Amino acid sequence: MATTPFMKMHGLGNDFVVLDGRTHPIRLDPERARAISDRRLGVGCDQLIVMHPPRASGAEVFMQILNADGDEVEACGNASRCVGDLLMRESGRDSSVIETVYGLLPAERTEGGLVAVDMGRARDRWDEIPLAGEVDTDHVDISVGPFSDGCAVNIGNPHIVFFVEDMDTIAIEEYGPLVEKHPLFPRRTNVEAVQVLDRDRLRMRVWERGVGVTRACGSGACAALVAAARRGLSARKAEVILDGGPLVVEWLENGHVRMAGPVALSFTGELAPDLAGDLAGDLAV
Length: 285
Hints:
Elements: E1 4-11, E2 14-20, H1 30-37, E3 47-52, E4 61-67, E5 72-73, H2 77-91, E6 95-100, E7 103-109, E8 115-121, E9 140-144, E10 147-154, E11 158-163, H3 172-180, E12 190-198, E13 201-208, E14 212-214, H4 218-230, E15 237-242, E16 245-251, E17 256-261, E18 264-271, H5 273-276
Parallel strand pairs: 2-3, 4-6, 11-12, 13-15
Antiparallel strand pairs: 1-2, 1-18, 3-4, 4-5, 6-7, 7-8, 8-17, 9-10, 10-11, 12-13, 13-14, 15-16, 16-17
């Protein structure tokens, strides 16, 4: 019986099933992605990652990202760090370049074995996020439960950041899905609740679009830092503390956002034919 190899990786508990389609093409439809991502009936993960041959000059791999609900998305910071780590281990170098639909993301190994990735330019125009209409993205007029006065930013994918006084009082699992599907967000949105501890420490919890509450979200941590700096609540570099642990995020002077943290390979395995289905074939990406 033919099986399909996979790797299970995570960044601070934000976990991924990684498939390698560089040599043998892999095609994933939403139904199959949901089956593999299911935590009871499949392998279980927040996002499913497929590595394809690169299309752009200078890239080593094209990274396709599917959320647990089967929807394909544009960016994932922790997955980029995991794939960057794999590429660096393969090459023996301390840097790699990952291609996504959002562009090229350089990754590098830093002190202490952490993996950093440049997530590209933070975008703050209403039509770049995107929002349904022209609004002030620094102060978005939205109110859902304890959330109000959001700050919208695109870090390869859409985010809305809400600043709160006490994270322990915020039921993000209750109000996150309502914000995610608010009419203001035509492509839905990731939702971050952020408590400012001091100018270089933020506490964040996240409701990820198409996934739910996760232990960490790399692009969400980047969005939180950018939003806090835009509001004058933090420095341009800070530690963002998530449920799974801390990331160090810096909003660079060129507008790009750099994020660093640990990654881990949890285990490897093989998808049984009943779970994998027919993954072979060319994929238009």
